[in-house]
Amino acid sequence: MIGWHVPEYQPGLPWWPLVVVIVAIVVINIVNNRLAPQSHYLLWSFASSVVLIAIGLLDGNSFTDMGLGWWFYLSGFIWALASIGLVTAFYVVVSLFKKTRQALKDDSIGSLSAGKLAFRALVEVPFGTVLLEEIAFRAVLFSMLARRFGVVWAIVISSLMFGIWHVLPSIGTHERNPALGSVVGKGLRANILTVVGSVLVTAVAGVLFALMRIVSGSVIAPMGLHWATNGLGYGFSWVILRGRGRRRSP
């Protein structure tokens, strides 16, 4: 199976393009979470992805360097499908037991209609969240870092940046997830613990995503795992919460 492609290390490359892409990522994150209306989320995410790819190309990264080369699509899809299957099996097992299924409950999901859930899981997540984040961290930033500092540092720095990316969206998560709230409690301390935990967990996930991008040669592989974690997570949470609601109804 075709795979295992990483950008070639090229010492002596200028730093300023790297600063430009990091600043762009920070601005995109702030706009996404605090300024852009939800109705424009998909458009903003797509436009941001195009801008980031343009920065990567102007820096001298090829599409193959960024994990976007067509030659690696097949291996990327194979890894993506395998990861989707594994995540599905994991969620099924977790949802079978009362104690573990609590971790899947997100009160903000239970109020969605079936149509809105499908739109979020099948449109917003893959073509908004997953597309933008994988282009930003496993395609453009990873390639730019690997060409300057080598693959190991590219994995470490891009994963840390991916963790920091989740600071804003993680604020207040403990109030929507009862399982998380029961662990961290309430108030400012709980919010801080939630944010720190989110950064650490997503940074570790970033390492896994980066490794999948390396062994497959394509960002399609981590896109599959990323979508499965988020999109299927929403689906299982919705089913669990709706099932609980039906059992409680007279």
Distance between the termini: 55 Å
Number of helices: 12
Number of domains: 1
By DSSP, the count of extended strands is: 0
Bin the strand percentage. Answer: under 5%
Low-confidence spans: pLDDT under 50, at least 5 residues?
A: none
Radius of gyration: 19 Å
What class would the helix/strand composition place it in? mainly alpha
Outline the biggest β-sheet: none
The average pLDDT is 90
Can you describe this structure?
There is one protein chain. The protein has one domain (16-248). The mean pLDDT is 90. The longest helix has 36 residues, at 114-149. It has 250 residues and is an all-alpha fold. α1 (16-35) runs antiparallel to α2 (41-58) and α6 (114-149) runs antiparallel to α12 (220-248). The chain is built from 12 helices and no strands.
In short:
It is built from 12 helices and no strands. It is 78% helix and 0% strand.
Features:
single chain, 250 residues, mainly alpha, 12 helices, globular
List the helices and strands and how they pair.
Blueprint: H1 16-35, H2 41-58, H3 73-96, H4 98-101, H5 107-110, H6 114-149, H7 151-165, H8 167-170, H9 173-176, H10 178-184, H11 187-216, H12 220-248
